[in-house]
Amino acid sequence: MRKASESIQFTKQPYIEDVGPRRIESIKFSMFSETEILKAAEVQVFRGVYYDPSKKPIDHGLLDPRMGPPNKNGFCKTCHGNFRECPGHSGYLTLALPVYNVGYLSTIVEILKCICKKCSRVLLQEKDCRDFLKKMRNPKLEPLWKKELQKRVIKKCNAMTGSKKAVRCSRCGYVNGVVKKALLGVQHDRAKVVDNYLEKCSSALSHKKEFKGKMNMPSVLDAKVVHSLFRNMLDEDCELLYLNDRPEKLIVTNILVPPTAIRPSVFVDGGTQSNENDTTERLKRIIQANASLRQEISESNLHSKSLTSLVDVQMEYAQYINSDVRGIPSHMPAAKPLTGFVQKLKGKAGRFRGNLSGKRVEYTGRTVISPDPNLKITEVAIPILMARILTYPERVSHHNIEKLRQRVRNGPNKYPGAKFIRHPDGTEISLMFSSRKRHADELKYGYIVDRHLEDGDAVLFNRQPSLHRMSIMCHRARIMPWRTLRFNESVCNPYNADFDGDEMNMHVPQTEEARAEAVMLMGVQNNLCTPKNGEILVASTQDFLTSSFLITRKDTFYDRASFSLMCSYMGDAMDPIDLPTPTLIKPVELWTGKQLFGVLLRPHAKMRVYINLTVAEKTYSKPKGEKEKPKETMCPNDGFVYIRNSELISGQLGKATLGNGNKDGLFSVLLRDYNSHGAAVCMNRLAKLSARWIGNHGFSIGIDDVQPGNELNEKKKNTISQEYRKCDEFIHEYEHGRLKLKTGCDAPQTLEAQITSVLNRIREETGNVCMQHLNWRNSPLIMSQCGSKGSPINICQMIACVGQQIVGGRRAPNGFIDRTLPHFAKKAVDPNAKGFVQNSFYTGLTATEFFFHTMGGREGLVDTAVKTADTGYMSRRLMKALEDLSIYYDSTVRNASASIVQFVYGDDGMDPSQMEEKTGCPLNFERLFMKVKATCPALEQKNLSPSELCQLIDISEHDLTPEEGWSNALRKFIEESKGCSNAFATSLSKFITSKYEEMENTIQALKLDGGLHGSEQLGYLENVASNISGITSQQLRAFLKTCITRYHSKKIESGSAIGAIGAQSIGEPGTQMTLKTFHFAGVASMNVTLGVPRIKEIINAAKRISTPIITAVLEYDDNVILAKMVKGRVEKTLLGQIAKSIKAVQESLRAKIVITLDMKTIQDSQLAIDARRVKESILQTPKLKLKDKDVNVLDERKLQVFLETDRSKIQFELQSLRNKLSKVVVKGINSVERAIINRYTDKKDGKEKHNLLVEGTGLLAVMGIQGVVGQKTKSNHVIEVQQTLGIEAARKVIIDEIQYTMSSHGMTIDIRHMKLLADLMTFKGEVLGITRHGVQKMRDSVLMLASFEKTADHLFNASVHGREDKIEGVSECIIMGIPMQIGTGMFKLRQSMKQPVELIYGANPVIH
């Protein structure tokens, strides 16, 4: 046919549009019928053998050559391809009798529950059938709702068959029994059915000799019977039961034998034996069992047919599908477990996760890493050994032909060389042995040369575990000798790498597009900030901080030679540098270390980099009282860093300025005010300077650094003995019952809390003493102050005292009876007996101290191990749920099927990685204002007066829309700022208002408005005022313009995969959290679950959480008595707690229980309870079953309960009733464990106020209690809030709770990520957890769900219901190898290929 079409000659070639490679649009899942299997198969397989004696595959055997070549040497008889070309062809195997497919067994049972076992019709009434069918046929119904509808049909039929009276089919009158799932089969239990069917059978068979009298009906439904039942089902009944296809396809009659390509046969032992795949082995067993079944059928006579082989076939086929299937009989051989199909698909190493979602790749290298401060932060040093193996395919053009010729001549073993040449026709030439010189001369344009890596190539660098996107970044290659991968230490932090033997991976992108994307999207310089919260990640660490700290000390001076040398360290003496004016001129010119940093930021006058910032370092001495003013630049410790126009004016540089994690640090400011290149260059300079300076200067640590002096030892001794005495006093008070109890605590808890606070103070105080008495040259002290390593606590532990050991949030627990170790007295609670370590590491620990210290250390290790697995699984679930959320071009956040999750990302559409303010606001106005004032000085311009500024403020408050009568200067700014969010406009307006107030305060302080000063003096004072808080109109204009333009540049880009980023931003901090943390919410004994377990509870949307707490706001929050009254109403009060006595009285006629109330306790607790109220409570308790006449009130404090029962049982009944009565709830909410009055100081007015912390559930009940402000009462239980207040409130709780948990661990995460997660969990109208059940409701894609969890179940269900996967999401696209519709794949790019039309200019010839 093809030849014929080729021979046809067209006068004009027909136009065929080139649509490019075809893309798979969707996948539909369905089941194979027996005829479809026969059509698909090439050969019938019925021989359970492999090879004949001459090692050739046997025809109609399991390795028949028509199914594909059995091994690498063979050829396919169907398509005549070899092992690489032939895709493989299927065979078929006909079974003697049908068997169940174990994957569909539950579906088969569900269908059988719903249909009549005689006429195959659905058991429901005709009307119900029509109603359900109408709903099922609704075209708008989602698959999940259809599944729910199907469950309702099954439930209704089940209720009918499960009832006592058996169900009679309304169509044929047959009585149906209960259908149950048996081991690899189906049971139909008709034992309860009352009809005369058995009697009829008995009478019919009674004349036979073999008949024994009583007849038993077999309860097991045979696959053959079920097959015939399913064949008779109507199509509309199938539709009603949400079956996409005919149900008989669920039963297996023919088996499709998979091609040999997926079950290869391998010869071992030099070709003497063949090693077969598990699938082939299992098929062989099925063939053998099937053959013996055929024989049984042909031999046995009809009535004694006990087909034992059928069970074997059923068993083998079940294990062929799923080898972990339950119910394998004991006689089955369980030698070597053969994997089934399900096992090949599921799990981490299965097809989905092991071969489709993630694959092994080529062009990678892995080795140990080491530091090199001489490299740029964007570079990675690659050993020559690796560069010779890894190649990049470069296309020959006239630019690079000479270079590539030289590479080809060098060959694969000499660097820089090449390995292969590829011609345009696809032929590949290896340069290992061929004549390289000839190939080099014959090189033509368009050829591709696989050359060795060279300097400047883009490579991806990655360290596992890859917790966030900065764990894989693009660096530029630098080929260097030796055997390790090296990079600048500044880049350790994003990878979380250290150089104690870590290994890292490297990948080489193989196309120009891949390189371009790698450099643009993954380049180090474009990922300096983390999208988690906008903090800078790539910044100076350890040595760099130490040397910067030492260089910028107040008393470091350098002469011209050493200062010039240090300046040349920065840029390898290659950069032009203008030396600043020396600080001291006589007797010798001297420069300070601070000036060196001025040179580092701005080496020469032509460089227009003006940095302005203020940072308080660790050493900054904060004002002690409210009246004391902040010292700022006059800090005695030189801890206030002030850089003005790139000159360091004051401050010793440390981690806050140069390190990561600070948004106001030097590199953050460089990045925001200038660009990533500016920040990167500065980091490179600092790395070189630090490494070289500290190498020459020297910095080391010795045992004398941790040697305590006599004075320190004396002070430590005094502190410890003093605090121990306090502890003894507490213990003495406790033993004599005089200890003052804390809120919500009993005596032992109070004692623990008091002692713990005293012991914690010991370490703090000794630590402070240490810090004061150490010499400034002390290495640990320097490291602690500049933030490069360690903290005051570490120094204190080394020198003075290790302190209290904590195990499980408390002091060391008892390991023996009533004591921690046998070295101590029983019931000892003194500090030494409960894990307080007096010694320091320098003096050495005693045996018991060492043991306690080990307990604390062990807990940390176990915690880390458990946490890794927990957070890893949590991150994976988050990632799977959020992966396909991205921002569309209409600025909405949608998932892959374009359902809207958020209308605007994070409520304002800003990029979290670009936020400049610590709280997540787009701009830090204070710093920008300072920058504008420094870079745009007032000079001769007049400052604005407060009244002029006030006029401008009024303008700014008009919601940023222009109106008449405004100054022209601001009109333009307002028009430009139309796209700003209201929150931003308000914050900007507030900031300008604060500047106005500052101006007013300055004028009042200097008394400029009173007319008290002379004109000359007034001029000076006005000058002072303008320097303090003045602003010119030009400065204001520049400031506003900067704010607006910056704000617009921070909008998030369309196509951003913010789902994935959000998942990483929440998952990654989880690894740094401690696992079991209980936080005391204002009260010592009130525990709140925090850390990873709390995050898990929120994300799983758990129905029951470990510590539900309701925070109730009181109407009168300043009155303790009223608070106690509300507490009494909320807290569960049992009768036993308020009764003086509950006595059992036995009289001659009847028995009674007399209850006397303790009125004093009731009044103390502010409970309004009397005997009548108790009677009501007793009658309302359902378990007691007492009537009104049984309870008699004597007076307000006494009542009696009568008991009428059998005399023999009266004693037991009386005691039982007495116990039950003591547990009757007389007041409060049943579900509340307890309520605690919490005292707190109001931040607004500084007054002491009270609120109620309620442990337990029952939000609605607490809100309804008199004295509680319902609108302000909150709960930390997401599901309860949703049931009580609705879905929006639940969303708010999710956001607040994640934020609270993270901030308790000192982590800041941008609120936009939490909003996104909360919106995803609530956008369907119910709270969905990020678990297999929740994700199933969020997503329709079968492939995505299969690649997540329960792989086989999803695939089997999809084929039953005929699900279609449109391949839109990220997981599906990766599995199918299609570019995903996110980021750069979101849009199509069209390029015009036509030549531009040439326009003729001149007079029109027609007119003339």
What does this structure look like?
The chain has 1408 residues and is an alpha+beta fold. The protein is 40% helix and 15% strand. Strand 15 (418-422) and strand 16 (428-430) form a beta hairpin. It is globular. The chain starts with a helix and ends in a 32-residue tail after the last helix.
Main pleated sheet? 6 strands, mixed
**SS elements, strand count:** 46
Q: Which bin fits the share of residues in helices? A: 25-40%
Give the structural class: alpha+beta
Give Rg in angstroms. Answer: 41 Å
Strand order of the largest sheet: 13-19-18-21-12-20
The number of distinct helices, counting runs of at least 4 residues, comes to 49
Sheet-strand content, in percent, reads: 5-15%
Low-confidence stretches: 1-5, 956-971
- The mean pLDDT is 84
Q: Distance between the terminal alpha carbons, to the nearest Å?
A: 62 Å
Taken from the alpha-carbon principal axes, the silhouette is: globular
